[in-house]
Design brief:
8 helices; disordered N terminus; 35% helix; extended; 339 residues; 19% strand; 6-stranded mixed sheet; 3 domains; alpha+beta; 3-stranded antiparallel sheet
């Protein structure tokens, strides 16, 4: 709590319970050091990145909103002598030690300090700043709803958004200016939102169709390799399992004592969990089966291991080493009784 409160706060002793600071969205870049780190080598080769004239909106603006949760003790005043303030402090501490706190009258408030207009620096202000504002999340969600319903014209969706903003978001209130990009996105903004929404809707389907084609080609080229693929739809989950002839031979030879199940976490460009089944050979550790699933749960892991066990009828490991993951542990316990 600031000592100078301009007479706006009560003349009572207080305790600050919590403090939250909210910086201007043009404030300091808190991730600058992380952004300057060299990028990791990508999994795939991509085209040239586009050039950004202004790569960040951070302008080191010092404006900050400070919100404090404060308890005021209304039985006491602070406009007294130093000796009296020390006695009041002692009485409050003694009263706070009492579990019931029956002798203290307290008033909890949320005190918010807003920055002055002059504190905003190094960026545009006023009506002209509205042009550079990001699109509101509610507007983005509404565009996605319109696209889902079948609207794909940017002009048509902009008219619908205008009605949505004026009649729903700001019903009975003064609506923002039409130059405010947050609530009235440009034609290009709406077109980009339509494109991204439609791309998300079809990307998963296209990827699965491509994978079906790849699976058929792999089976023709390597008939001895075992592949099981279940695409994701309304009734089933995505599950891809692969084991080559060489991997099957290694599992049968080295997999009856101890096996390792290793899952990747945020190490690929895709959101599906990727699992490696490994064994220790006489030379090194080797991957003897691979499966990728839509979900990382007990049912999916048990189904994948069950299929691998079906391919290798004599495979019966005594031990399994996994990460501390309940889904993996329970999946192994479901497929292999007694482990």
């Amino acid at each position: 709590m600031d000592s100078e409160n301009d007479g706006l706060l009560p003349d009572n002793p207080y305790i600050v319970l919590s403090v939250e600071r909210y910086e201007c969205h043009h404030g300091p870049d808190r991730n600058k050091a992380k952004k300057n780190k060299p990028e990791a080598v990508p999994d795939h080769v991509y085209g040239k990145k586009r050039f950004l004239i202004q790569p960040t909106k951070k302008m080191d603006c010092p404006a900050t909103i400070i919100a404090k949760e404060v308890i005021f003790f209304t039985d006491y005043k602070t406009s007294v002598s130093k000796w009296q303030r020390e006695k009041i402090s002692k009485d409050i501490k003694t009263g706070m030690m009492d579990d019931k706190k029956l002798n203290l009258k307290m008033d909890k408030r949320l005190v918010i300090k807003l920055p002055k207009k002059e504190e905003h620096k190094f960026h545009l202000q006023g009506e002209i700043e509205e042009i550079s504002m990001p699109v509101d999340k509610r507007i983005v969600a509404k565009v996605e709803d319109y696209v889902t319903e079948g609207f794909i014209s940017a002009s048509c969706i902009r008219m619908l958004l205008d009605t949505f903003v004026r009649k729903e978001l700001f019903a009975g209130q003064r609506s923002p200016s039409w130059t405010n990009r947050r609530f009235f996105p440009s034609q290009k903004d709406v077109s980009n939102l339509i494109y991204s929404t439609r791309l998300r809707a079809v990307k998963s389907k296209f990827d699965q169709e491509n994978l079906v084609g790849c699976v058929e080609e792999w089976r023709r080229e390597n008939p001895d390799d075992l592949i099981d693929f279940s695409p994701s739809d309304d009734t089933s989950r995505l599950l891809f399992i692969y084991q080559s002839r060489q991997q099957r031979r290694l599992l049968q030879r080295y997999g009856n004592e101890i096996c390792f199940l290793d899952a990747t976490y945020r190490t690929t460009k895709y959101s599906v969990p990727l699992f490696f089944l490994c064994v220790k050979t006489n030379m090194d550790y080797a991957v003897v089966a691979v499966f990728a699933s839509q979900f990382e749960d007990t049912k999916t892991i048990a189904a994948a291991l069950g299929k691998i066990k079906e391919w290798n009828s004599e495979w019966n490991p005594q031990f399994f080493m996994v990460d501390y993951c309940e889904a993996e542990i329970n999946g192994i316990g479901t497929c292999f009784k007694g482990i």
